[in-house]
Description:
Largest sheet: 7 strands, mixed
Shape: elongated
Strand content: 25-35%
Bound molecules: MU-OXO-diiron
Distance between the termini: 56 Å
Amino acid sequence: MNLREISTGIFYCGVNDRSTTLFEGLWPLPYGVSYNSYLVKGSSASALIDTVEIGHSRDFLNYLRHTAGIGKIDYLIINHMEPDHSGSIPLLLDMFPQIKIVGNMKTIQMIRGFYHINDDAHFIEIKEGESISLGDKTLEFIMTPMVHWPETMMTYCPEEKALFSGDAFGSFGALNGGLIDDDMECGMYIEEMYRYYSNIVGKYGLFVTKALSKTAHLPLDYICSTHGPVWHSMIPQVIEIVKRLAAWQPEPGVTIVYGSMYGNTADVADLFAIELNRLGIRNIKVHNATVENLSQIISDAFRYEGLIVGAPTYSNEVFPPVQTFLNAMRTREIKNKVTAAFGNHGWAPLATKAISATLEGMGLEFAGSVAMRQSMDDQTAAEVKAVAARFASLLSGK
Ligand code: FEO
């Protein structure tokens, strides 16, 4: 058998995707992504945990059948039904027709809906706290709805202290040889974990917090997510990151997001950055929403405690790329930030008012706004400095 073993009887059989450019058709994949699947072999039975995205079914099935030489799998545990993990279910069922698909009631409804697999004989429906025995290994099921879909659950193997966590603790980034955090330089994966969480799961912090508290008592040697490295030595660090993100507890730093047509609104963004730096703030991320992908902007806005947003008025609305960013913040129900707004207008100061109203409407602490008319002058510069000073003092008071 040629499977890569993570822990005794737990094998990795996922795939890398370095071809897809946009995850979910939305989020860039500069480092690719892995779809992780795991095989747990007990003394009397074996179980596969999740499958891979359908475009990679051939590699996945070839690996299982031909490279690893597996002739029989007893169970397929489905922790999460999003098609990046469930896409290979129909072909897997063709190859292993006797396999029993294990999931909760919602999982099975979704399998019927997505893949039209309707024969009840294929399914074993499980509930919170139930388990199946593989002989010398056990798989226990923990319901964790909305991390990231309503059917989401986690699976725990107590004998190996391994938690199969679905999207939780996942990160973008294909696996470049190593599987376990000890075997690789993890800086990129940690950064990509912030982006994955904020882009994909960010709306569901309350549910993630609940899932973390449900699993907090489990002894953990391995967290086996559906994307990115298997966490081992870095488990305390990644739990802390996800716990903070789920609770909307930001890190020190400021994100400035702006759009600009001719550079005048950009001048205000730059002056805010310079002034905040002069006031002692060292971690400042300035994003031009016109040219940058929304994904990294969302990630930084989610991560840091300060958020300043600015745009020109455009057709009596907020300049569209910035409005798209604001919509993404509203969708994710961001909390616990110090904010400020700025705008630029030829004749109608709509953008400043609308951005301010949006930030305040989300219940975020608001330091003030600057409405510039056409281009920077001494008065606007003085207003930026005054708002920056209030902003910095609110940050330091947090
Ligand atoms: Fe990686 Fe929600 O799927």
